[in-house]
Specification:
237 residues, five-stranded mixed β-sheet, 6 helices, 7 strands
Amino acid sequence: MTTFPCSPMTTRLRINCSILSLLLLSACALSAARAPERVVRVKALADPKLRQENPRWEEEIKELLQASSDYFEREFGIRLVAQKVAAWPQRERIASTTLLLSRLRREVPLTDANGNYDLVIAFTAEPVDIYSDGKARVDRIGNCQQGLGNYLVSAVSSPFRYRGPGAEPTLDVVALVHELGHIFGAEHTADTDSIMSKNFDYRTEFDKKNREIILRNKFCPFGKQAGKRGKGFKTFK
């Protein structure tokens, strides 16, 4: 059998193709590693006080969600996607987060002309008392039997600008992450180093038990539309 030596041009071509193939494979592997395992469709709402105080309220809400999504995607493979950002309520200011959540659940459906949502989050800039009737709240602690929570109220205490996925979370982002933990089944803990501690000190890590709960529940279905507030309605702080 006769063989012919490769020309320098052929050799370089093979080397270049090999390099490009390796780069392509690496890019695909990196993309796959970063792909979220669960995507949560969010409808985000801004109350009158937030809209009044911040002319870029739409961007601010999207950026708060992005920062929280960065955390949940990094830690749990869960990505939050803001499918819609809107003004609500239109005029009336509601300082109580309990009343705001009740009205949110009663008036805002999980389906509208723009599509279906897994989670509805209302952001408020009212000067609420975080130690009483102003705590951030969810409609229920999520679980696989009843479904994950669908409604959340979170306070915005100061203007926020997104600084990238590696930025240290602000207190408002930590508060939102805490409530999102409830949505996926995490509960309050006596561990003062945990983000699920009931007090309001700054911390950024979940305790082992609640981390395992979120990982166990992350593929659970979200709850169905509950309709108007009924006897079984209960809010969680």
